[in-house]
Amino acid sequence: MKKFNNTIIIGIDHGYGNMKTANCCFPTGLIAYNCEPLFTKELLVYNGKYYLIGEEHKEYISHKSLDEDFYVLTLAAIAKELSTESITEANIYIAAGLPLTWTSGQKADFSAYLMRNKEVSFTFHKQEYHFHIEGVSIYPQGYAAIAPYASKLTGVNIIADIGNGTMNVLYMVNGKPKSGKMFTEKFGTYQCTLAVREAFMQQTQRELNDHIIEEVLRTGKADIPKSDLAIVKAVAAEYVNGIFRRLREHGYDENTMRLWVTGGGGCLIKNFGKVNSKRITFEEDICAAAKGYEYLANVQLLAGIGL
């Protein structure tokens, strides 16, 4: 986290697979209850309701402000980040992001959604929290992850941010983003998971647990029969081919451009792709985008924009 005067800047990456802050990561999902549930390890109590954080899988929605879920998950993310320094009460500036081509059209609504309560109190992990929300800034996904060193890039670079819900592609020339060359597609890693489910059912007439699928996609292996593993690997390899097919459709040339891969999709390319690794850089830090949002917000505030 970064601090500006008496305000703490909290960068939050609202992914469909995981919520990330600069120092924390947890599954994007929750279950709401009207009374206290049996298991309370990740329990957040807000506005008279009980929420188990990290449960289930958040369904993909194109506008993250359409329901209550991402607001509650935002409270949990702030609490988790502040708990790393045992802070329970603070002035907060939220720095978040949206897919590249959606940012300009949705940032006002998403900012208002996150800013709707300037004073907010809740309980998480049986600890009471109280925040004053000083402001919100929304930045483009993908770019944020490389923002701290973007100005040092030379030549033509392609930033591919492959998250759980979307794939965002941004062209940069000599460190400068090209606003006319950015693309967002609903081709995140969850699309690969869905394809694995379908192929596995067709070929075996059995279901494969999503946690096993995720393990294979992340590591390339799992404690399952070789024949089952082969099905997952084949689908994953085709998904990676789809990534590069889409990149080429947007003008990517591996011989003359350098590719920077951020987001969870990087592990799929490494595990299942046949690529020229000398011209590809993988951002290994899953929290890179959240840190980038903090960096951009700090630059903005130091320049006198905001607050």
Please report the distance between the alpha carbons of the first and last residues. 17 Å
Number of strand segments: 16
Mean pLDDT reading: 94
Structural class: alpha+beta
Domain Actin-like protein N-terminal: 11-143
Pfam family, one: ALP_N
Organism: Ruminococcoides intestinale
Protein name: ParM/StbA family protein
Features:
Nucleotidyltransferase, domain 5, 5-stranded mixed sheet, 16 strands, 8 helices, 307 residues, 8-stranded mixed sheet, 34% helix, alpha+beta, 2 domains, ParM/StbA family protein, ATPase_NBD, ALP_N
Descriptive account of the structure:
With 307 residues, the protein is an alpha+beta fold. The chain folds into two domains: 2-140 and 288-302, ATPase, nucleotide binding domain (Nucleotidyltransferase, domain 5); 154-275, ATPase, nucleotide binding domain (Nucleotidyltransferase, domain 5). The protein contains eight helices and 16 strands. The chain has helices spanning 69-83, 103-114, 143-146, 189-204, 210-219, 226-249, 265-272, 288-302; strands spanning 2-4, 7-11, 13-14, 18-20, 25-27, 30-33, 43-46, 49-53, 89-98, 119-124, 127-140, 156-162, 167-173, 176-185, 258-262, 280-282. The strands form three sheets. An eight-stranded mixed sheet has the order 1-2-9-11-10-7-8-6. Strands 14-13-12-15-16 form a five-stranded mixed sheet. The chain has a three-stranded antiparallel sheet with strand order 3-4-5. A hairpin with a 2-residue loop joins strand 7 (43-46) and strand 8. Helix 4 packs across helix 6 (226-249). It is globular and about 50 Å long. The mean pLDDT is 94.
